[in-house]
Specification:
Chain lengths: ~210, ~210
Amino acid sequence: MTEQEKSTEDLIFNAAREEFIEKGFDGARMQEIAKRASINKALLHYYFRTKEKLFDAIFDKVFKIFMPKVLDVMQSDAPLFTKIEVFIESYIRLIMENPHIPSFILHELNRNPDRLVGLFGNVAGIVKEKGFSRFSEAVNEEIKKGTIVPIQPEQLIVNIIGLCIFPFIGRPIIQGVIFNGDKLQYDNFLESRKKEVTKFIINAIAVK
Amino acid sequence: MTEQEKSTEDLIFNAAREEFIEKGFDGARMQEIAKRASINKALLHYYFRTKEKLFDAIFDKVFKIFMPKVLDVMQSDAPLFTKIEVFIESYIRLIMENPHIPSFILHELNRNPDRLVGLFGNVAGIVKEKGFSRFSEAVNEEIKKGTIVPIQPEQLIVNIIGLCIFPFIGRPIIQGVIFNGDKLQYDNFLESRKKEVTKFIINAIAVK
DNA sequence: ATTAAGTTTAACCAAATGGTTAATTAAAAA
DNA sequence: TTTTTAATTAACCATTTGGTTAAACTTAAT
């Protein structure tokens, strides 16, 4: 399917997604979105009445694609270590395919935290109930069994997700300061992380 | 010294810092900065010709205050574990006093990575030379001694900084999803982290 | 073929925005 | 005290920006 054959709505949606992710809500320009979609600006408003509504549509979709991936793994019945290992590798891989999404989501959420409330009934709530509480139980079980060191599940999950996401949000500094701006070194660094973060986490919690 | 007695330049600077940190460059408004500083908008341009120049002045200062704190600890001669412990506790404490700075710096750097280049000769370069390479040596020594597990210093430093910073960048999600929006729980969570992250890191790398 | 509905565009609009100017006031120098 | 310089303001300006309108075009139903 070529660009021409796509529905206008998709054309707009994709153009807007690029523009918003690249520049954020405040930096994005309706005219630029129209240009990227090769259509008239008025058509944007014909399909998505306002900039806010267009943004909301995109933020919703991006968020809904990104968050539930956490679930797939978290709610599996595999042993905790396996869960963690699979999660980290697949999550880093997912972000590598969409490296600007974390920065986008977190920035917009910081600028307007209320946005979460709108998603809460749907996605965020589900993530917590089905994902986190299930994970939380598994962690506490392992602690009781003595296979992992005592740790609050909240701390552990933030550590895991933080270690996956931070290298992408912090890319300019990491690549710039640590790797002297060398993109290749940074890419290798990322590639290694899939295994390294897993090792690091397991090491941190396993009782040896 | 009351607000009135401060120099006009400081008044503008502080007002602008608040506005930029809260809304980012794109979302900030010169009129709003003037209002916050209780002065005429033209006076902004009298002191700092353009929005860009005003922003640059602020970004520079914020960046220069935040980055070198990393140095103080990193270049000390204390044992690695002590270094790490002191760094994590003081860094998390520092961010707790300025919780929006990391999000601000990282967002603006992602929007315009070239900004780093301007700072590179000064701050960033120093951080790397005096801070990171010193830390890097210390890590490699401990590995050789067999006191810590083999790990690339680059991975370790990103892990340490990521674990310190991420809870602040990800606040809306953490507080919203994990703690059901309860600010108190989130604050306790942060407070615990000063000890928890240290334990976690040491556990992850120490050979037992 | 005609009508009706949906799609797309050019031109336009009002508000917001970064920035300027010319005049006024306050402070410092003579 | 007078003069010069710096600080401050109200009014203004050009451009950008999100959004609208009315007309033209396309497609499908009657």
